[in-house]
Amino acid sequence: MLQSPLNTYLQSGLYTVCLISYDSLINCYDTICKQVTVNCGVGVDESYTGEIILGIYPNPFNLITTIAYSLQQKSAVQLEIIDVLGNKVIQLENEVKVSGNYQVVLNADKLSSGIYFVKMTIDGNTVKQKIVLKK
User: Fold this and answer.
1) Tell me, what's the pLDDT at 38?
2) CA distance 54 to 35
3) What residues does each domain of the chain span?
4) Can you tell me the distance from the alpha carbon of 9 to that of 78, in angstroms, rounded to the nearest whole number?
5) Where are the alpha helices (DSSP H) in the chain?
C-alpha cells in the first residue's frame, strides 16, 4: 500500500476517487470516496475549493499524537487545539503554506486528560475533529 498515492488524469472530466485506510493492529478499515473534477486547462484558482481532511493518530493518545493534512494549493493555514468550551489552548500553526502533505506532532504534556478538538482553518474554511488525551 502507498502512503501518498498519486494518479495522473490525461483528460478533463469528473472522476470518482476512493481512499481506503487500514489498521492492521486492530484489523479495521474505512473508506471514503469523492468525486473530483479534473481541469486540464491552464489557470489559477485563488480560493480553496478542497475538502479539509485531518488524519490524527493515535487517537485516543497519551501525550503525543500526529496531525496530518494535505493542501491542494498555496493556502493560509491555522491549526489550533481547543477545549470543550471552545477556548484555544495551543496554537500549532498560523502561516501560509504551499501545496503538499504536512504532519504536525502535538505534545500534550501540559494538558490535562480529557476531550479536546483539533480546529483547522484553511483560507477561511474550518473543520473540527475530536481528540481524546488519556494520561
Assistant:
1) 65
2) 18
3) 44-133
4) 31
5) none
Q: What fold characterizes domain 44-133? A: Immunoglobulin-like (2.60.40)
Report how far residue 37's alpha carbon sits from residue 39's, in angstroms, rounded to the nearest whole number. 6
**62 backbone φψ class: left, alpha, beta (φ>0; ψ -120 to 50):** beta
Side chain identity at residue 115, one-letter code: I
* Phi–psi pair at 117, nearest 5 degrees: -130, 140
Instruction: Select from 65, 56, 80 the least CA-distant residue to 135.
Output: 65
Rg (CA), the chain: 17
pLDDT tens for each residue of 56-85? 889 899 999 999 988 888 889 999 999 989
Tell me, what's the pLDDT at 41? 44
pLDDT surpasses 60 at 49: no
In the structure, what pLDDT confidence band is assigned to residue 18 with cuts at 50, 70 and 90?
Answer: confident
Euclidean distance between CA atoms 51 and 36, whole angstroms: 11
